[in-house]
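Sample 1 of the test manifest.
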Amino acid sequence: MAYHKAVETIPLEKREELSDKLMDAILVSKNEDKMPILLANTILYHWQRGLLAGGASLAALLEAAVLLEPDRTMEILEVELQLTNTAKTVNEVLMKAEK
Amino acid sequence: MIRVIGMVRFGIEFVPREAYWKTIYYAIQAEKRGFNYLWITDHFNNRNVYVTLTAAAIYTNKITFGPGVTNPYLVNPVITAQTIASLNETAPGRVVLGVGAGDKTTLDCAGVEMRSPLTAVQECIEIFRRMTSGESVVFQGEVFKIAGAKFLFKPRGKIPVYVGAQGPKMLAMAGKIGDGVLINACHPKDITYAVDCVKKGVSEAGKKLTDVDVAAYTSFSVHENLKKATKAAVPVVSFIVAGSPSVVLERHGIDLKAAEEIREALKASQWGQAFGLVSPEMIEAFSVCGTPDMCIERITQLLKSGISQFVVGSPIGPNVREAINLIGEKIIHHFKP
């Protein structure tokens, strides 16, 4: 649920590109063992139905990307797509999780 | 560029080396991009082929899929028949069996002898077909003896059998009894030779070549940048060169000494040295590699050599996801506008 709040900060016109970039980061990641199976199945479910840029899917993609490739995820959000608010919300989720 | 009109099918091969969700992501993507066939390799040291195929059955809707290829040594034909028939219930009419003699190196690792490969594959297909047609099978073969095996469920329909073949006898047998043949080759010279062998079996069975789906199972790498495509192909080509018999290397004018040096370097795990020895001639002979236009040209040549299915195999491209998109947009679209 925490990542749904982050998704709300993503403008509609950037969702497709973000979805592609996060998916790429996840697919090339060497940390595949960190992927929770429920999350993997959620992503596949949305991908099969062509809904990978939808809200629920983006939340799952963000969560997976942060787990597998945290640095790359922040680079995508802050530098490549300049989604500063989204990056800030994701950071807040991460800090909460660390506590 | 001339368009080849015909029933060309596109297949894609994945080695389930990575987590299942990555393979399945690519399988869904391949289906969306217009591929007709999904082939999953079967080696005991990777993820299990049937677990991967079951996930593919759930997450895809129209692509045809099967093991590419299993062998009769590690899995008894009765169990292969049971697995494929069960899989065909999860995706009716979308399942095929790919079977060949197997890879000797992998079988050696498992301590399994590759005994009478031609007979073993032939018997396996017969047992498979009889089992999946619902028969009670009593079989006294050279390799397999079945005392009386019958499913307690009703199998759904006929399942096509593709034979993975390399040598002339296996190729002819594939033409004779197979619904399809999977040929591990990338170059028109090798495909022409293989198709001639398949034709012998086809005519022996009183069939036409068009009755058999002839597939080129290729090592493939595509990128808009030729250098990047080639770099991705080099490791795979080095292993193919190392595993190729002299007769095949000579057919392509490849220096046998260079091939031996690659073999030695790979044995010693000196990857950099082995990859550095791969020449442009080796890339040309043992891969379909380059920009989309270059790949289209090669596929066109292979179609003229007699194939009806083109299978995109490892590495696919420097970035698999981007490569599948590129193949769909530029290559499949060229042949099926």
